[in-house]
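Design job #97: recover the sequence.
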């Protein structure tokens, strides 16, 4: 059986096509929508992997609200040269979270372009990034085979047009993705650009003549723009592609950093001389995964000082609770939910009451739009570059296909409407359109 797999930054899905019928595979039976699997991996302390909704649930049950308990481990001595003191020998200790029931990984696809993430230690076992992704891929394949009752014989897997802007980082990312497929022992894998896949699934439904299509695929990690000539048979000629590493994860970050930091003590001053509380602490709140950095003793000491000496002790206690009780993930889930809500409503309320965190933030849509202004411009420039490369004007485009969860954001819809006109915009199945097209491509490979 040939299948198409969309391995997304946030969500993954799988489809099969037999030349007539297109079928999505329920790869996450416990998810609200079983055809969409969150691209998450949880590895328990004893090395058992879980993916999707179950990964999030296991992490949340075991970790969130639990007071982190540190064990200090001596790892050796090091020579340290300090400006005023000279060279001294220092004992090196690392703190490990003694009771963590497991580690959760999210947005692994975005890490592909990050040279600094090569491997990580999970309770004594080293995992390369490729190995982590391979675990997810292998489990997806097993679920597909269990559901279909037949072996998967070949796969077409989606890839963004650009994993990264930098050519070297882009190549590294793709090589690692290929290595992950090899490590997962996937049969006969080929890759297809995600927007091409979206266009293929659209081509099945069109009538009449050839048209110029611009695919606007805006997901969790990347925006991909592709312009192609397409006919009803699915024949296509690429005119241009472009992409930027801007996606829903980054927009969550804009909301977090732009609106919520004061609830965790940003702007506080220390003592009677009103010295500013170190702002670099807050940079670690830019992703839920980096919040855990603040459990290092030197940061905890700063936070304790903030509780004792600052003019915002309540907010500093919220920060301590966020850090020490692992509320980073639920916080980011609330931020994401607020963002999604703002796609429907003109304003939303983000409320959080967990541990010592207790706040309510009213967020109007216009303010979210202000915060993402630079990203809207980056996205627009990306479209203009693609049009330029194709030698086309916006009026030459017959259809703009919107796919990917972030393509629902009104600000981007408005930008597209202003550029291309409302009648040319078409929303695809935002979460499964790519997988459907990949399934069609997989079938074409063996029958076309
Ligand atoms: N209604 C909505 N409004 C705004 N954002 C949304 C909405 N629905 C989903 N999203 C966002 O879309 C993103 C996920 O979209 P999608 O599943 O298409 O991404 P992906 O395919 O996993 O990522 P990529 O294609 O970049 O690898 C998340 O950031 C999510 O918050
Ligand atoms: Mg996608």
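Job complete. Output follows.
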């Amino acid at each position: 059986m040939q299948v198409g797999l969309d391995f997304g930054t946030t969500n993954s899905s799988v489809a099969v096509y037999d030349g007539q019928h297109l079928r999505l595979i329920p790869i996450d039976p416990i998810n609200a929508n079983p055809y969409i699997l969150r691209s998450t991996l949880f590895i328990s302390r004893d090395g058992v992997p879980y993916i999707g909704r179950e990964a999030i649930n296991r992490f949340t049950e075991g970790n969130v609200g639990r007071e982190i308990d540190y064990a200090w481990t001596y790892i050796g001595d090091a020579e340290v040269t300090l400006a005023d003191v000279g060279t001294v020998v220092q004992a090196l200790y690392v703190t490990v979270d003694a009771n963590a029931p497991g580690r959760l990984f999210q947005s692994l696809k975005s890490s592909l372009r990050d040279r600094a993430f090569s491997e990580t230690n999970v309770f004594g076992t080293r995992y390369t990034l490729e190995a982590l992704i391979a675990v997810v891929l292998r489990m997806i394949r097993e679920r597909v085979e269990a559901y279909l009752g037949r072996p998967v014989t070949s796969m077409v897997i989606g890839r963004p047009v650009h994993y990264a802007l930098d050519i070297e980082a882009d190549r590294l990312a793709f090589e690692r993705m290929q290595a992950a497929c090899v490590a997962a022992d996937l049969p006969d894998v080929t890759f297809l650009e995600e927007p091409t896949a979206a266009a293929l699934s659209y081509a099945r439904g069109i009538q009449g003549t050839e048209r110029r299509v611009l695919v606007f695929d805006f997901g969790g990690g990347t925006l991909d723009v592709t312009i192609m000539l397409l006919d009803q048979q699915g024949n296509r000629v690429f005119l241009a592609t472009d992409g930027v590493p801007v996606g829903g994860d980054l927009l969550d970050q804009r909301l977090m950093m732009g609106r919520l930091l004061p609830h965790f003590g940003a702007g506080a001053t220390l003592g009677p001389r009103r010295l500013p509380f170190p702002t670099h602490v807050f940079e670690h709140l830019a992703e839920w995964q980096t919040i855990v950095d603040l459990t290092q003793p030197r940061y905890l000491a700063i936070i304790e000082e903030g509780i004792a000496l600052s003019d915002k002790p309540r907010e500093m206690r919220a920060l301590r609770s966020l850090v020490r009780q692992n509320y980073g993930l639920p916080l980011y889930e609330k931020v994401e939910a607020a963002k999604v809500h703002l796609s429907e409503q003109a304003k939303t309320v983000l409320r959080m009451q967990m541990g010592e965190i207790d706040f309510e933030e009213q967020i109007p849509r216009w303010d979210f739009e202000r915060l993402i202004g630079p990203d809207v411009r980056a996205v627009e420039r990306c479209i203009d570059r693609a049009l330029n490369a194709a030698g086309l004007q916006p009026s030459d485009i017959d259809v703009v296909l919107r796919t990917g969860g972030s393509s629902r954001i009104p600000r981007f819809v408005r930008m597209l409407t202003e550029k291309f006109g409302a009648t040319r915009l078409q929303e695809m199945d935002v979460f499964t359109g790519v997988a459907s097209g990949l399934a069609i491509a997989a079938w074409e490979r063996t029958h076309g």
